[in-house]
Structures are given as C-alpha cells and as structure tokens.
C-alpha cells in the first residue's frame, strides 16, 4: 500500500471505503507496520501494531474481529489471543499488548499518526481541565473499570477512591486459598496502598460513603469527608444474605465475604473444633474445605437435595458429594436450619427441622448474595433488585455510573466475574469520552475447581420438555462424568465432572448453535479428537 505523508505527522493511508467492514488491512509508516480495522459500517477505524507480541509475526491485520462481553477485540490468527481494539491490551495476558495509534477521518480518507498513544483517538481535542471522578467501592469491578479508564484517558480525571475496607484492592475470589492456608493476604493484593500514591489517586480507606448529595455533587463519608465530583463510578458490590434464623446474631456466626471474615474463621480454627457451613454451593464448599484443612470437624448443610444444584445435574452432584465426603467433610442435604443455639452469647449448636442437633463452635452462612444498593437508594437513585443501569452503565442520574454486583441491567443481576469485566470496560469507554459501545449480557459457563475437583456446566442441563437427548460418559474408575444435552442436532447444555478440558468448546457449541451431526458420536472425547477425525473423514 502506498502512503503519502501529510502535515502534523499524519499519514494518509486509504479511503474508508477501501477497508471492507469487519476486516483489517496492513500499512507501513515510518518503518512501522500497522494493522487497521473497521468494525461493521461504522465511520471509525482502529489502528494497532501489526506484530503479534507472542509470535513476533506481522499477522495482526489478518486477525478475526469480534466482541467479548461488549469489548471489541481482534484475535491473533496464530495463537488466538484477543487484543482490545481500543487499548491494545491482551485479554489473556496483561503483560502483553499492542501499540495503539491515533486515527482520524477527513473527507472519507483514513489518516494515521506515526506516534503511538495509550489509546485510540478519533480527533484532536483541545486540552481540557481535569474532571473530578469518585470511585465508590474498592473491589474487583470498580478497580478494573478504573484501570481501563487510566489506560484510555490517563489525564482526564482527578481520581478519589472511597473504600469500606482499610486495605487496598484485593482479589476476593482468592479468599478460599487464604482460608485453606495455600496463600496469604499479601499474595492476593492487587493494588496495595502504595499503588494509589504512585498513580496520584486519593484513597480514603476504612471510610465508607454514606450519602451522595446529587444536587451539590458531593460524596459524604462516614468520617465526615465531603468529596466533590463531576462523575461517579458506583461499585458497592454485594452483601451476603443471612437468613432470619433465630440465633443468627450470636458470636461465632459469620459470612464468607471479605478479609475480616477469613481472619475470624482462621482465628476460630485455632481454638475450636466444630464448624457448620450452611450452603452447599461453591462458596460454602470452599469454606468447608478451608476449615477442614485448618483442622476443624466440618458439616455442610444444604437446603436442596444435591450440592451445587444450580450448576450440576443429579449425577454430577452425587459425584461431588462423594468427593467432598472422602475428604472428611460431612454433608447433609435437604437440611432446613430451624435455630442456631448458643450459651452466653456464643454459638453452641445448630438445630435442624427434623430435630437433629449438631455441635457447632462456628457457623458460616454461604447461601447467596444480594446487591448492595443501600447507598444508591438513600441517595435517590432508581433501584429494584439492584441499582438500575442502562446499556452504557449509567444510572438514573447521568453523572453516576455503576458496575459490578450492585447493579441490575435489563432485569438481571450478576455474581460471576466475566460479565463484570465487560461492564467495567463499557463504563470506562464512556467516561473516557470514547463512548459508542453498549453492554450485552450473555450466558456465562461455570468452570470451577471445588475443593480440588474440576466441575463445569453451561447452557440448559435440566430441560423441561422431552424433546432432547443425552450423550453420557460415566467413567467410575477415573471419577469422570460427562453429559452433553442435544436438541435437534444442536448442543443445548453440558455438565462435566473430573475432566473439564473441553468445557470452553462445549460452551462455544451452545453459544453458536453449531450443528453437530458430523461429529456427534465423537463429542465426548473432546474437540481435538472429534474435529480431527471429522476433517480426516
């Protein structure tokens, strides 16, 4: 492709119409190889370095364009890693990224600057005075949004972070390994207090926000700080649900949600023997495993008749129960907790509806979460099951955005990490004033390691009609179970236990509704075998 240099270091590459929608083209400017991408028929072009950082091959212009949780990406044609078109970051490996070059359109022509930027720009805007941004909530979703925003518009905002907990941002998902002794609190810290200082961010820890004065545009904190704002990211997360069981306020009754909870559980395990965990989902089982490894005798109570009933079918649930019990943890399903008993204000036992009494020095509730929308409600934002947001993550007040477990989007609330990343990115693009993307929620497969056992589920594994077929592998000796649910030559659900290597492929078949007749009889043996055999045939 021939390039002619224009003024102000801009290079005239080609006409916009020369780039076929949803494809890329390569260009060379100032001895730099650049890949340009056009998404659909939009009047916008993205420019990134053409060199795949994993293979060092100049192939990115031949990458496949797509969308992952609302984030526009290009997949390398060699190793298939995904790179954000907006920021160049690699979704699979944050140590790797592509350079991003400014692009502008003039009279139907695509112009690219030879000087890479932190993110894309579509025009040259005059220097603006910094706006005041307040992030309320110091958890995974809010901080991911802030990271993306700092990548896209590092000089746009003067940032204050208000956190309910005193420490920096940590990976809440990794609390289970901390409880079991496999990791320390320091190991799971993502942004220690020094990081905020280095970024020029004001951090108010151990001082929760108590009110948003939307008229005066100030956030008030518990200690009396008043923080002015132009924009807010509301990321207050969720609260553990504690059922109204008599005795739930006794000393020794805990949830499993934050560092405080983990520290108390570890302390109890040093001096007490009996623990009861109420809830047989992922969090409850991880709590039980951690306490068992700390030396306690643990019983898990679960209301449903199989463990992880929302993620696993009957057979997988039974296999999981057998595996959990083999580790020395007692399991009671169909268990209704009638009362938590105590003496002198401390837990002594748990009474079940059938009259059985369990000894307990510690009771841990892990029966679900609820969006934490108290601050939003008090401040007059529209809420229902969560803080209601639109497709750009704005609340009823356009100056206030919200992301994470506190929100409700199109009637849905969120508890898994993957959709939170999509929300964070969409929110960041709009705060960076590059807003054109919208958030779309998609079904998310569940792939987890529960107490050392791999489990996976996706799609509908409990169809209510009879118009479906099961394809099942049940290897009792190796403790492996696979079930693929098929309707009209398409996979609608999958449950895996013990071997989840091909879970992503089954999820892809469900999402794309791919006809499977040509390899149906080979599906249980995995993608490589099924497709290789099909291609060879």
TrEMBL record:
<dbReference type="GO" id="GO:0008942">
    <property type="term" value="F:nitrite reductase [NAD(P)H] activity"/>
</dbReference>
<dbReference type="GO" id="GO:0046872">
    <property type="term" value="F:metal ion binding"/>
</dbReference>
<keyword id="KW-0274">FAD</keyword>
<keyword id="KW-0411">Iron-sulfur</keyword>
<dbReference type="Pfam" id="PF18267">
    <property type="entry name" value="Rubredoxin_C"/>
</dbReference>
<dbReference type="Pfam" id="PF13806">
    <property type="entry name" value="Rieske_2"/>
</dbReference>
<dbReference type="InterPro" id="IPR050260">
    <property type="entry name" value="FAD-bd_OxRdtase"/>
</dbReference>
<keyword id="KW-0534">Nitrate assimilation</keyword>
<dbReference type="InterPro" id="IPR036188">
    <property type="entry name" value="FAD/NAD-bd_sf"/>
</dbReference>
<dbReference type="InterPro" id="IPR041575">
    <property type="entry name" value="Rubredoxin_C"/>
</dbReference>
<protein>
    <submittedName>
        <fullName>Nitrite reductase (NAD(P)H) small subunit</fullName>
    </submittedName>
</protein>
<keyword id="KW-0285">Flavoprotein</keyword>
<dbReference type="Pfam" id="PF07992">
    <property type="entry name" value="Pyr_redox_2"/>
</dbReference>
<comment type="similarity">
    <text>Belongs to the FAD-dependent oxidoreductase family.</text>
</comment>
<keyword id="KW-0408">Iron</keyword>
<dbReference type="InterPro" id="IPR012748">
    <property type="entry name" value="Rieske-like_NirD"/>
</dbReference>
<feature type="domain" description="Rieske">
    <location>
        <begin position="11"/>
        <end position="112"/>
    </location>
</feature>
<dbReference type="InterPro" id="IPR036922">
    <property type="entry name" value="Rieske_2Fe-2S_sf"/>
</dbReference>
<dbReference type="GO" id="GO:0042128">
    <property type="term" value="P:nitrate assimilation"/>
</dbReference>
<keyword id="KW-0479">Metal-binding</keyword>
<dbReference type="InterPro" id="IPR017941">
    <property type="entry name" value="Rieske_2Fe-2S"/>
</dbReference>
<dbReference type="GO" id="GO:0051537">
    <property type="term" value="F:2 iron, 2 sulfur cluster binding"/>
</dbReference>
<dbReference type="InterPro" id="IPR016156">
    <property type="entry name" value="FAD/NAD-linked_Rdtase_dimer_sf"/>
</dbReference>
<keyword id="KW-0001">2Fe-2S</keyword>
<dbReference type="InterPro" id="IPR023753">
    <property type="entry name" value="FAD/NAD-binding_dom"/>
</dbReference>
<keyword id="KW-0560">Oxidoreductase</keyword>
């Amino acid at each position: 492709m021939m390039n002619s240099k224009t003024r102000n270091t801009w290079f005239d590459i080609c006409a916009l119409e020369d780039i076929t929608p949803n494809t890329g083209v390569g260009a060379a400017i100032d001895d730099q190889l650049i890949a340009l991408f056009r998404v659909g028929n939009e009047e916008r072009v993205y420019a990134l370095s053409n060199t795949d950082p994993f293979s060092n091959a100049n192939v990115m212009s031949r990458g496949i364009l797509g969308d992952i949780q609302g984030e526009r990406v290009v997949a390398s044609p060699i190793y298939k890693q995904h790179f954000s078109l907006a920021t160049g970051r690699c979704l699979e490996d944050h140590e790797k990224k592509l350079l991003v070059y400014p692009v502008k359109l003039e009279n139907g022509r695509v112009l690219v600057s030879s000087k890479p930027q932190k993110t894309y720009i579509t025009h040259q805007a005059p220097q603006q005075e910094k706006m005041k941004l307040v992030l309320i909530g110091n958890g995974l979703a809010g901080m991911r949004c802030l990271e993306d925003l700092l990548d896209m518009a590092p000089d746009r905002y003067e940032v204050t972070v208000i956190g309910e907990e005193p420490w920096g941002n940590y990976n809440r998902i990794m609390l289970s390994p901390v409880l079991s002794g496999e990791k320390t609190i320091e190991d799971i810290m993502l942004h220690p207090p020094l990081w905020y200082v280095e970024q020029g961010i004001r951090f108010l820890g151990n001082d929760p926000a108590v009110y948003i004065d939307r008229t005066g545009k100030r956030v008030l904190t518990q200690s009396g700080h008043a923080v002015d704002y132009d924009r807010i990211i509301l990321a207050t997360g969720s609260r553990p649900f504690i059922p109204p069981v008599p005795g739930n306020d006794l000393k020794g009754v805990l949830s499993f949600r934050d560092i405080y909870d983990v520290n108390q559980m570890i302390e109890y395990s040093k001096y007490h023997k009996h623990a009861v965990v109420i809830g047989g989902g992922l969090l409850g089982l991880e709590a039980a495993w951690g306490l068992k490894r700390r030396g306690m005798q643990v019983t898990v109570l679960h209301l449903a008749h199989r463990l992880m009933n929302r993620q696993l079918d009957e057979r997988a649930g039974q296999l999981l129960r057998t595996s959990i019990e083999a580790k020395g943890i007692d399991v009671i399903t169909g268990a209704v907790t009638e009362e938590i008993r105590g003496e002198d204000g401390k837990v002594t036992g748990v009474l079940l509806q059938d009259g059985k009494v369990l000894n307990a020095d510690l009771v841990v509730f892990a029966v679900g979460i609820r969006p934490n929308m108290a601050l939003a409600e008090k401040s007059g934002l529209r809420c229902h099951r969560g803080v209601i947001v639109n497709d750009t993550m704005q609340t009823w007040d356009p100056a206030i955005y919200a992301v994470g477990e506190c929100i409700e989007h199109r009637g849905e609330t969120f508890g898994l990490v993957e959709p939170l990343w999509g929300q964070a990115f969409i929110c960041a693009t709009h705060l960076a004033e590059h807003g054109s993307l919208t958030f779309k929620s998609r079904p998310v497969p569940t792939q987890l390691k529960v107490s050392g056992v791999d489990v996976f589920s996706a799609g509908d594994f409990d169809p209510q009609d009879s118009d479906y077929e099961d394809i099942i592998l049940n290897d009792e000796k190796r403790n492996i179970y696979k079930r693929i649910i098929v309707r009209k030559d398409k996979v609608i659900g999958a449950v895996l236990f013990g071997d989840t290597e091909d879970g992503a492929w089954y999820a892809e078949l469900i999402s794309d509704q791919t006809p499977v007749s040509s390899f149906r009889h080979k599906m249980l043996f995995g993608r490589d075998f099924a497709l290789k055999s099909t291609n060879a045939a």
